[in-house]
Write a structure and sequence with these properties.
Blueprint: H1 3-14, H2 23-33, E1 39-42, E2 48-51, E3 71-77, E4 83-88, E5 100-104, E6 110-114
Antiparallel strand pairs: 1-2, 3-4, 5-6
Helix pairs in contact: 1-2
């Protein structure tokens, strides 16, 4: 694996993309795909598709993956400053304790916390 491929994996795995808010992952993918795709477009559900047309002599290849990741949605901030949330994706309650989290505010600021 060369440095560019390694950086692609780092950038994709560190991009924030909870269900319904995958724009950061979409932008990372588009930035890397533009070097090899003739066409980059979205489907009706927000998936990003990069299309490369070869010479017609080789096999057709389709590669797909999820853009979203499990996460949380803030539902309430209590008078004492505690944050209540709803899980997004397949979290198990017994593994959430002591998890470090980042909360992205409406203004785009990141606030670090621990469950």
């Amino acid at each position: 694996m060369d440095k560019k491929e390694e950086q692609l994996l780092i950038d994709l795995t560190t991009a924030r993309g909870v269900p319904g808010n995958e724009e950061e992952v979409r932008e990372v993918f588009k930035a890397y795909a533009k070097d090899f795709a003739e066409d980059i477009f979205y489907d009706g559900l927000g998936s990003v598709i990069a299309k490369h047309v070869g010479d017609g002599g080789g096999p057709k290849v389709f590669i797909s993956g999820h853009m979203d990741e499990v996460g949380f949605m803030v539902t309430k901030i209590t008078d004492k400053g505690f944050i209540e949330f709803q899980t997004l994706g397949g979290w198990w309650g017994q593994v959430m304790l002591a998890q470090e989290v980042e909360i992205k505010t409406q203004a785009g600021k990141l606030v670090h916390g621990v469950i």
